[in-house]
Write a structure and sequence with these properties.
The structure is a single chain. By secondary structure, the protein is an alpha+beta fold. The termini are far apart. Helix 5 (about 90-135) packs antiparallel against helix 6 (about 140-165). Helix content is about 45%, strand content about 25%. The protein has helices at about 10-15, 20, 25-30, 35-45, 90-135, 140-165, 175-190, 215-230, 290-300, and strands at about 50-55, 65-75, 80-90, 175, 195-200, 210, 235-250, 250-265, 305-310, 315-325. It has 9 helices and 10 strands.
Length: about 325
Amino acid sequence: MLIVGLNPAAENILGISARRAIGEPVLRLLDDEPELRDILSRVSKTGDHYANEMRLAPTEVHAEERIVDCRVSPIDCDEAALIVEITDVTRRARISRENALLIQHGAGRQMIRQLAHEIKNPLGGIRGAAQLLERQLDDDELREYTDVVISETDRLVSLVDTLLGPGGPPNKAPVNVHELLEYVVRIIEAENKPTLKIKRDYDPGLPLIDLDRDHIVQAFLNLVRNAATALEGQGVITLRSRAVLNYTIGDTRHRVIASIEIEDDGPGIPDDLQDSIFYPLVTSRPDGTGLGLPAAQELLSRHGGLIEFESRPGRTVFLVRIPLDQAQST
């Protein structure tokens, strides 16, 4: 399983020159990837062709995890016994995931609007009937029951309004996203113990962006508060900002976007929730409403943006993508 040849594309993917790689075990260059080890063993024994999708861990050359299609075939060429073909499909997989998130958000929003319509109409009738009944009662003890009906009706109306989110188009003005993040940090620090640490890794070159301050603050607050809750007040939250060139959100390609990352070192999102966390009322917490993430996604969608995430035990990152050219997102 020693490398006898490497083309330029493989040099780029593996982050090593052919001169240094030749003679090295291929598995050593891929962190002894178990799936690849299994495929190499099968092809060597059976002579069949095998292909699989794998994830490559971050390296000194490539800072982020990559998704690759790997195909291994037998070959009889000089010293070579196997040929390993690796294709980087990270961007393709990411676009597919983004489209799935957009579809999920659209379906969630449609469901919310239908639920709101079905719930708010009868709630108004219930509240009105309870108020009329209250006027007919002389017994204060009985009025306590009508007060409960009215207060619970108001609570449900408030819940529906939260599901629907703020009405009207965003009220955009030039803002510094770092100032918004710092405003959110002050709120989170006031709510939590000093054992919760918040680190910053900001790109000072990010320009002002035309955004609705209240909308974006609410979205950031929902995300950072979720991270603090996952850490139970003890751990590290890292806020990171970067400019990303030539980024596609949905069907729109943007010359440059702001990428805001909210990372925590908590337990991660349960696997069974990762495909549905942006649907309303989906939560892993007994006291959670499941409204924070859908609301944040809705607020970002009004700016042509998108929230993505990556999660595993010890590292969960929510990535907020905001186009710098908001003229395209109005």
